[in-house]
């Protein structure tokens, strides 16, 4: 297979082999200074300016270059260059931004076809890149009609004494930058547009603003220039104005965003949970930008695949729906419109956590239903560590309150015990109701009290059917299961809590112990879709101990299910 680079070397070899000073019969320019190697590349002994002027069918481009002083600048720079031109029948006088359009056809880089690769970006005089694309035939070494500068297909390649002239099919159309594109979005996309723009703002650009006088107060008056800066994006090295950016943006319309929010609220209602629109919209914003250019095949898949946005949010390509048929090319990226947006379960449920001491809020009938006990006598609910906060006034007070069960006097150690506990939550009036758990994968953690000295087997049941079970877990002297001070798991704190920051500003050495998930019971607990319609279910946590081992009581603190990345 010949590559473009190999093809360029072949051309040079061919030029020597056929004595390039000889004119071929198909030299339709009849210029004695021309050397034709073949119909793909022409070599002339004149400057690019002289060559363009020598061709009557390039007179319109020649006139534009003269009018805008392009030739004068080239001569002043006295360096090699690349010029993109069109024949008169494809020329159109720029209706506006004449200088901008003209400069989009000139580059200080002299680049041969041999050095062009698919994806090459050529910086032009208008301060933006032209993207080079090469089709399969072009990758085999063919040039004409197989290499493209943005929208223009290469029709001729001419090597001059001052660089290269590429005759292309159409004048260069320069896509807008990512920021300009977002700023100009129509009202159908106003929700997304305002979310992005509201995260940044305009700043006075003193360097590019000209002083034009002094006011009555003695202050300098500027012909002011303002630039848009967005520190929210700049914090992750993503400058939407930068032409060196190579980005992918996913664009949801107002209709798509509202439909996603409506679907999310319907799911939350079915789960008897709540989540604010601001959190969901924040996820939409953070999930829409990527710092690399994705192809249609990469952004929409049939197999499960996760992409990470610049803010490290999870975008699952076989769940989300993206229109890949009409990508929008920008000067520093590519945009795909989102046709259907799914707000992930693990966004809608940050974590599910509650406490065993809600026993005291149950009616007698509920105590028997939600706390089914064998060889356990209820003793008390007791706060063993008073309410505290590592950063008072910022994070709420949190207490360590437990439920204590005693061993009945008639029960032997070898009899062990069993608790079938249905997780319950508190209502606003202090009553309780069972938790409902959506289908999906969760990490399961629990907390008790240090030094239980018992080996427990934990099972999870739905409608009396066991769906998961552990090997015996030692609830011993380790602090792993001590209240909710879990020591072995990562990502265990409440949403938005940064233990290192709290410890630094609050001076509290126990900041990492605050309201964690607890100790690991299962890496992944998968709750099945029992009804086949995604509806949530009640579960029972069965805690079994085969031997009391000389102990007389057991104290439980909390349970916690945290959705995993697979709970999407």
Q: Termini, distance in Å?
A: 44 Å
Uncertain regions: pLDDT < 50 for 5+ in a row?
1-37
Helical content class: 10-25%
Helix run count: 15
What's the β-strand tally?
34
- Counting helices, strands and paired strands, the structural category is alpha+beta
The proportion of residues in beta strands is: 25-35%
Radius of gyration: 35 Å
Strand count, sense and closure of the main sheet?
Answer: 9 strands, mixed
Mean of all residue-level pLDDT scores: 89
- C-alpha geometry: elongated
Protein model, in words:
The chain has 568 residues and is an alpha+beta fold. The protein is 21% helix and 32% strand. The protein has 15 helices and 34 strands. The strands form nine sheets. Strands 1, 2, 3, 4, 5, 6, 7, 8 and 9 form a nine-stranded mixed β-sheet that branches. The chain is elongated. The chain starts with a helix and ends in a 5-residue tail after the last strand. The model is unreliable at 1-37 (pLDDT under 50).
Short description:
21% of the residues lie in helices and 32% in strands. It starts with a helix and ends in a 5-residue tail after the last strand.
Topology:
Blueprint (H helix, E strand, L loop, with lengths): L3 H14 L16 E3 L5 E3 L3 H7 L4 H9 L2 H8 L3 E5 L12 H6 L2 E2 L13 E3 L5 E6 L1 H4 L7 E3 L2 E9 L2 E6 L9 H6 L6 H9 L2 E4 L5 E5 L5 E4 L2 E4 L1 H4 L12 E6 L1 H18 L5 H10 L2 E2 L5 H4 L6 E3 L5 E3 L4 E10 L2 E8 L4 H4 L3 E4 L8 H7 E4 L2 E12 L9 E9 L10 E5 L2 E3 L5 E3 L5 E8 L6 E9 L2 E5 L3 E3 L23 H8 L12 E9 L12 E6 L7 E4 L1 E6 L5
Parallel strand pairs: 2-8, 3-9, 14-19
Antiparallel strand pairs: 1-2, 3-4, 5-6, 6-7, 7-8, 8-9, 10-13, 11-12, 14-15, 16-17, 18-19, 20-34, 21-24, 22-23, 23-33, 24-32, 25-26, 27-31, 27-34, 28-29, 28-30, 28-32
């Amino acid at each position: 297979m010949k590559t473009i680079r190999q093809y360029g070397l072949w051309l040079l070899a061919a030029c020597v082999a056929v004595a390039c000073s000889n004119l071929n019969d198909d030299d339709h320019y009849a210029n004695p200074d021309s050397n034709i190697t073949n119909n793909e590349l022409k070599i002339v002994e004149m400057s690019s300016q002289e060559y363009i002027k020598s061709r009557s069918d390039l007179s319109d481009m020649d006139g534009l270059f003269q009018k805008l002083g392009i030739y004068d600048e080239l001569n002043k720079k006295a360096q090699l260059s690349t010029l993109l031109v069109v024949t008169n029948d494809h020329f159109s006088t720029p209706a506006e931004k004449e200088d901008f359009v003209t400069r989009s056809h000139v580059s200080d880089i002299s680049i041969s076809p041999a050095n062009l690769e698919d994806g090459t970006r050529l910086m032009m005089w208008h301060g933006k890149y032209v993207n080079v694309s090469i089709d399969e035939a072009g990758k085999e070494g063919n040039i004409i009609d197989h290499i493209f500068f943005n929208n223009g297909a290469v029709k001729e390649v001419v090597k001059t004494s001052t660089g290269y002239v590429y005759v292309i099919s159409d004048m260069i159309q320069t896509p807008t930058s990512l920021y300009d594109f977002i700023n100009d979005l129509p009202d159908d996309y106003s929700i997304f547009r305002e979310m992005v723009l509201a995260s940044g703002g305009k700043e006075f650009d003193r360097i590019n603003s000209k002083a034009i006088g002094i006011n009555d107060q003695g202050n300098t008056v500027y012909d002011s220039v303002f630039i848009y800066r967005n520190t929210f994006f700049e914090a992750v090295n993503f400058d939407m104005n930068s032409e060196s950016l190579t980005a992918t943006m996913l664009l949801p319309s107002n209709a798509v965003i509202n439909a996603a929010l409506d679907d999310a609220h319907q799911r939350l209602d079915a789960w008897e949970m709540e989540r604010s629109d601001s959190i969901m919209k924040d996820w939409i914003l953070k999930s829409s930008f990527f710092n690399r250019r994705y192809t249609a095949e990469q952004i929409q898949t049939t197999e499960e695949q996760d992409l990470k946005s610049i803010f490290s949010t999870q975008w699952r390509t076989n769940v989300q729906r993206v229109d890949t048929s009409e990508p929008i090319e920008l000067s520093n990226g590519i945009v795909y419109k989102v046709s259907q947006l799914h707000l992930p379960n693990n966004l809608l449920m940050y974590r599910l956590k509650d406490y065993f001491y809600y026993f005291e809020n149950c009616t007698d009938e509920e105590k028997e239903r939600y706390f089914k006990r064998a060889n356990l006598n209820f003793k008390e609910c007791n706060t063993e560590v008073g309410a505290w906060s590592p950063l008072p006034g910022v994070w709420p007070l949190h207490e360590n309150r437990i439920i204590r069960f005693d061993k009945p006097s008639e029960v032997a150690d070898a009899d062990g015990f069993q608790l079938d506990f249905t997780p319950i939550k508190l209502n606003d009036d202090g009553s309780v109701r069972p938790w409902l758990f959506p289908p999906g994968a969760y990490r399961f953690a629990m907390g008790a009290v240090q030094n239980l000295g018992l080996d427990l087997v934990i099972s999870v049941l739905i409608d009396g059917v066991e769906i998961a079970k552990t090997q015996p877990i030692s609830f011993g002297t380790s602090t792993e299961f001590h209240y909710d001070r879990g020591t072995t798991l990562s990502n265990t704190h409440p949403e938005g809590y940064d233990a290192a920051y709290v410890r630094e500003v609050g001076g509290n050495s126990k900041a990492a112990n605050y309201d964690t998930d607890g100790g690991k019971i299962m890496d992944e607990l998968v709750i099945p879709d029992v009804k086949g319609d995604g509806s949530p279910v009640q579960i029972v946590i069965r805690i079994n101990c085969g031997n009391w081992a000389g102990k007389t009581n057991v104290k439980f603190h909390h349970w916690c299910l945290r959705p995993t990345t697979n709970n999407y």
